[in-house]
Amino acid sequence: DQLQVVSVNRYTGSSRDVNQPPPVFGIDSALVQYWIETDKTKPAYGLVRDRPLELTPLNGPVQRDSDIVEISRDVVYLNFRYYDGTQWLESWDSTQSGTLPQAVEVTVFVQGEWRDQQVIEPFISRFYLAVGAQTPQKQQ
After folding, report:
1. Measured between alpha carbons, how far is residue 10 from residues 6, 56, 60, 92, 103 in Å?
2. What pLDDT, in 10s, does the model give residues 11-52?
3. What's the rounded Cα separation, in Å, for the pair 41 and 13?
C-alpha cells in the first residue's frame, strides 16, 4: 500500500535550542507519501517517506531520490484500511468522496530474528480522526 497526504504544519516556537539556526515561522505544506521500497539497490529502502521540497513544481511532480527518507529497513509490508462509519474499506480517495475517513487502520509487518530464526511480526494500530466524523458528505 501507499499513503499519500497533504500535510500542513505550523511552527509554534515553544522551545528553542540556541545551538540550532533560528526557526522559520509560518505555515509549511507538503505532499507526503509513505510506501515500502523493495529495490535494495536504492539508497533508501524498506519503509520510506517522500516529502518533496516543492508542493507544485512548474514542470509537474518530480520524485528525487534526495527527497526520499528511509524510515526502517525492517518494515517489509504495509497495509492501510479506512473506516467510513459503517465498514472498513481497502482504499480511500478523498478527491472522489470529498470526505475523510472516520478512522485509519495501519498494519506494519516488521522482519526480525527470534532464536536464530527470521520472523515477520504484524503490528496493528487504529487512529480515529475526529475531523473525519464531522466531514459533511459531498453534494452531487
Report:
1. 13, 19, 25, 26, 24
2. 555 555 556 666 555 556 777 888 999 998 988 889 998 877
3. 39
